[in-house]
Design goal:
alpha+beta, 4-stranded mixed sheet, 6 helices, 6 strands
Length: 173
């Protein structure tokens, strides 16, 4: 019984200490689409490009369980990703220049759903539309959590939670 209580105390302590410091794993690979500007047409185009890039990456990485394989598949399929961006722009009769970069790219800090993500250089695929001065969209492509979530059959909003964290938040927030 003492071991059980001690285990619960340790779990609760770890959850309390880390509840606002959840980090994306080091082996994760991100994807980011940066809009030309914050104008409505540019933001709409960014969303369309992001959706199509996300779709391509989903089919490419949905069954991949190894970061090295994910990395190689992305590198080997850059032409497919480029074609998805190009086709998206053409379908919108938009001739915006763009560039695609795979490597270590800067990501600004961000808070999303109460979780703070630190700024820094992260392994990623970045699509920059035009001057790249607008708001961006990003997610983690490996492990493909957001890709799988986006392709959920019901297109429902999924929110991942920890039961202990939920219980603690209920009583301590």
């Amino acid at each position: 019984m003492k071991k059980f209580i001690l285990s619960i105390i340790i779990i609760i302590t770890v959850v309390i200490i880390n509840r606002n410091n959840i980090v994306i794993p080091d082996e994760a690979i991100r994807v980011r689409v940066i809009a030309n500007s914050n104008s409505s047409p540019d933001q709409s185009l960014k969303k369309e490009v992001a959706y199509n890039v996300e779709d391509e990456l989903y089919y490419l990485l949905k069954d991949v369980r190894n970061v090295e394989l994910a990395r190689n598949l992305v590198k080997e399929n850059m032409s497919k990703i480029d074609k998805r961006v190009s086709d998206t722009l053409l379908s919108k009769s938009n001739h915006t220049d763009y560039r695609i970069d795979y490597g270590y790219n800067y990501f600004p800090s961000k808070e999303y759903k109460g979780i703070k993500y630190k700024d820094g250089m992260y392994e990623s695929l970045v699509v920059t539309l035009g001057e790249g001065k607008g708001e961006n969209w990003w997610c983690v492509m490996f492990p493909p959590f957001c890709l799988i979530e986006a392709h959920d059959e019901g297109k429902t909003n999924i929110e991942y939670k920890f039961a202990v964290k939920e219980l603690l938040n209920k009583y301590f927030d």
